[in-house]
Amino acid sequence: MALLRGKAWVFGDNIDTDLIYHGKYLPLTDPREMAKHAMEYVPGMEDFSKRVSPGDFVVAGRNFGSGSSREHAVLCLKYLGVAGVIAESISRIYYRNAINNGFLVLECPNISKKVKTGDELEVDPESGLIRNLSSGEELFGHPLSGLEREIMEKGGLIEHIRSLMEG
Amino acid sequence: MEKIASSKLGREVKAGERVWLPLDLVVIRDFAGPNAILQFEEITKGRGKVFDPERIAITFDYQVPAKDEKVANNQKICREFAERQGIKHFFDVNAGIGQHVLLERGLVTPGSVIIGTDSHMNLLGAVESFSVGVGNTDVVAGFILGKLWFRIPQSVKMVFNGRLSYPVTSKDLALFFVSEMGGDGANYLSVEFYGEVIDSFSLADRITLSSMVTETSGKIGFMVPNDEVKAFLEERVGKSVEIIEADPDAEYLEIREYDVSGLEPLISCPHVPENVKKVRDLRGVKVDEVFIGSCTNGRYEDFKVAYDYLLRVGKGFNPRVRVIFTPSTKEVALRLLREGIASAFVEAGGVFTNPGCSLCTIGHHGILASGEVLLSTSNRNFQGKLGRGSYVYLSSPLTAIASAITGEITDPRDLL
Is the minimum CB–CB distance between A71 and chain B shorter than 8 Å? Predict the structure, then answer.
């Protein structure tokens, strides 16, 4: 996995699945439509989907993605072009859904305090090393390992299954 | 957890290992089910067969009956899929909340491994089933392979000794657990509940507690069935079931012990479940709506205890408050209707709805206007979940019914 570079958008603790992708949009099945509603219920972030640029990172505090099993909450960010989520902790279903969709998630202690919105980050998904190019600080995230990494590298669980079916 | 995985794989499995576990049941709902079916059809080019139609279940509980054309179409996709694949465990809009329906229909046993598109799937840990909520991609893997990847969680042991005294309930204990653990305190972990309080818990109490494990990001919360729960399971499954006991030398990441005899009625305040306070410290907060139901407090016992309290106080609901009752399943609904409990709620000024997820899924009914306050027996109070600018508090059915009578947050001890 190559080095990634992008701008940070910093959120607080407990960014739950309704804040990431509100329940009223659950009947949608097209991920490009889902993308328009990403982060819409975070106060002050109603137009996040218009402001974010492809390759940017979502940075958050603890318990990111708590709540619903809705995969929409991963797909909306992925189809918006967000490069990944780096949070102090990521709730287990969100973590699974991200891996299964080949969407980068990294846990990194104190990240939401060490990074400001607009900071330029360089992230090595393989080692978990995060460089804040704006402040010069280096942070160490927990890289993926074993099976999760294998699934991520294939591009997600569906691709993994395809390769199992062919093999 | 290690024991269940080891017995499934026929070898010793340790916490932290990544394994593919065979699935006893793959469950989809009218929520996320259609996404999974469309993905399945795409990957199998419309010609695929599920690994075993006997081990797939489809339950409708999300927005039942369908509230708009999109939902109606999603439900149609599921119905046609069930027909095409020969899936017999299919429960339409009249049946109720999926996990509860599966439990009542004898499809859940201790040690079974179940996945479903519901983050509260894990409430089935109340009967020692390893059931987990997953997204639609995991379900597609389940449909095709009949197995799924898991990271075997480490375990935490919670011991609750002492006795809860009326009107303190299992929900108050569940809120105490969430506040002690914190919103991500059990992330990636399995929780095992023990102690005198758990031993005395009915199945309904156990479901209330195990469903709230999700609110600590826990993977699953197990309770070893007592005789009553075992008898229920055996009656429903139609054969004897084997209880799983942890090994005496089982390893735990942490063991926490509490005497909860002095526990008071608790309430979770906006906008995160872990924000738990004493009900008496919030006395006087006006409520616009009260909801009793959900997968957390939608069993017969939850309504019966509220009904008995209502009779005892002998007053109807504050006419300013909308009071909504939603049974978890058809079976619960029928019993409440038969015993006159549903009519007593309606006579007192309440609304009695068909079984399902009701308020917990925005878009059906009971949505709040900006600035309004809901007191709910459900499990989540996320910001804006039930309407932008609204406030949701979580409590037991007894705190909820007391507050419905007065129109403000009320400690249930105050009216006795």
Answer: yes
